[in-house]
Amino acid sequence: MNRLTSLPALPHTLWRLIVSGNQLTSLPDRLPAALCWLYAQDNRLTSVPENLLTQPSLRLVNLMRNSLSERVQTNLGRAQHAEDYQGPSIIVDVAVAQGPARTLAKAVADWLDGEPETVALWQGFSEEEGAQEYAGFLEKLRTENVNAADEGFRQAVAKDLRRAANNPQLRARYFEVASDANQSCQDRRTLAWNGMQNARIIADIENRVYDNRLGDLIELGRVMFRLDALEGIAREKAHWLRTKNSARRVDEIDVYLGYQVQLRERLGLEHIAPGMAYFNVSDLTAEDIDNAETLVRDKETAEFADYLATDWQPWDTVVSRIAPEAHEAMSEQLIDAMGDEFDDRLKKRLAALNLTGFGDAERELGVEVRKEIEREIRGALRDKVLAGLRPGLQSDRHILPRPDQSNGNVSGAPIRPQRPLVLDAEEWVDDAHISADYALVRAEYPGLAAQARFVEPAQVQLLRETADETVRQELLQEIVRVDQQPNDTADFLFLPVNNGRADQEGDHWSLMFVDRRHRAAYHYDSAGPLNSEAATELATILSVNLLPVRMARQGNNYDCGVFVVDATRGLAARLAQGERPDHEPLHLDGLVADRPALQRRLSQNR
């Protein structure tokens, strides 16, 4: 048994000191100048040297399971969370709370101040498996995590709680993750929370949130690809660090979280937590971070298309719903190809390498051939889906070949064209065309930014399609909010309405113009009542009264989308001139749709 109660004079060149499991009551006032690592857990320390936080070379201090007072621990934690702190990472115990553990509802209430209805829902989940562990996780996340001081992080946790209150499957996943994370240090809990965010994204995909938002779905796929790539890089880096110094304990979890945090903005990983407590432990340098970013981007350019088609299950799930016949045909083709075609390719591959009859070679090359066939067949379906342009389904033809343009946005904001679009003489206008022209309208009428919102087609479709009321309410708030201020909302909304569904192609566009001041909606349909059902449904969702308005009629079967963008432009111009539907609707019975003008705007992107 170790018996040290004090330390002897220490050499000034000492760079690592391990004195755990002794009976030390204090540390030397002057530690060696070269000291980098200090392990003093499981002692009887009641205080720390005053200069501990400013020791020039010190990187990590482990003081767990000592007799440090709550005041000392609090002061150490507060000092490390300061913006200008550059001292060592110090690991301490968290003071044990007195009295019984907080209930699930109370732990939730701490994050949802002023939302008694949601907290009341959580009271009913206290008997679910893992509920108490999740309550403890929330409490530690609030009181013992470096990210708790970040306003964006707090809002994300609150959003999580609202979402999970209405989604039993997501809630169960959160409870499961929390059960494994509570006994870990705060950085591992941060990584666990990041995992919960990934689970939320997958749950949204399973709940059809992205069935009409393929652009956003692809961006999410990029984010998941980057995280997977970073995990592999972290594993290799941790192995290298262990090989370099076998006496050092290196945890690839610390390295992985370090990469995530440092590359959060550069790789568009905004859904994960912004900080970690003990980055120094990761032993990552600025060069490591830069190299990792380059590796991830190079890997994405070379491999993402195949990853999307063959490795990312959520993509396959969505495709099976929005293109069921094509997906079923692909599955049958894949099964057939794994018979004679697989055998034929494998035989030729073995013969070309003079390896016929070698069992090991047959097994290894067999895996390669299977993947090759799967890439070809699933890749063909991927390309077919992305090339399919129809109303009600956002066009993604510019997204997959341009990974350099990706910003990792996962907030639900639409993907806008990165280059001019083409609209043929009789081509139906699709989501991408409307989004592009709406972007031009915003630029043309900047004075309307505080009064009007030009809503993206994918957002309108999601309002109608989602079965998750929490998602719908959050989307409504996102739509009406101006400059992200919760009480600063737009008076007017322009909503392009399509009669398509996730399982049914749409064939008609119309425009709903909403005056939120009077809770009124005006439906401009160039085909009369064709879209009345969709408009009535949308008006109910928005809690507005649908009022009659005169609208010009289209003279063909393909210009409905042109009428939508031109009606939007006509109304926007009248709003900009000060005209309002206060006494009578803003009729558009004299509107003339101008397809050539729209073609010019789209082709010139101005």
* Separation, N- and C-terminal Cα atoms: 78 Å
Shape: globular
Task: Write down the Rg.
Answer: 29 Å
- Tally of contiguous helical segments: 21
Lateral strand order in the biggest sheet: 5-8-9-10-11
Mean pLDDT: 85
CATH-defined fold name of the largest domain: Methane Monooxygenase Hydroxylase, Chain G, domain 1
* Beta-strand content bin: 5-15%
The domain count comes to 3
CATH superfamily of the largest domain: Shigella T3SS effector IpaH defines
Largest sheet: 5 strands, mixed
Q: What is the second-level CATH architecture of the largest domain?
A: Up-down Bundle
CATH class category label of the largest domain: Mainly Alpha
Total strands: the figure is: 11
InterPro entries: LRR-bact_E3_ubiq_ligases, LRR_dom_sf, NEL_dom, Papain-like_cys_pep_sf, Peptidase_C48_C
Domain Ubiquitin-like protease family profile: 413-571
GO molecular function, one term: cysteine-type peptidase activity
Family: Belongs to the LRR-containing bacterial E3 ligase family.
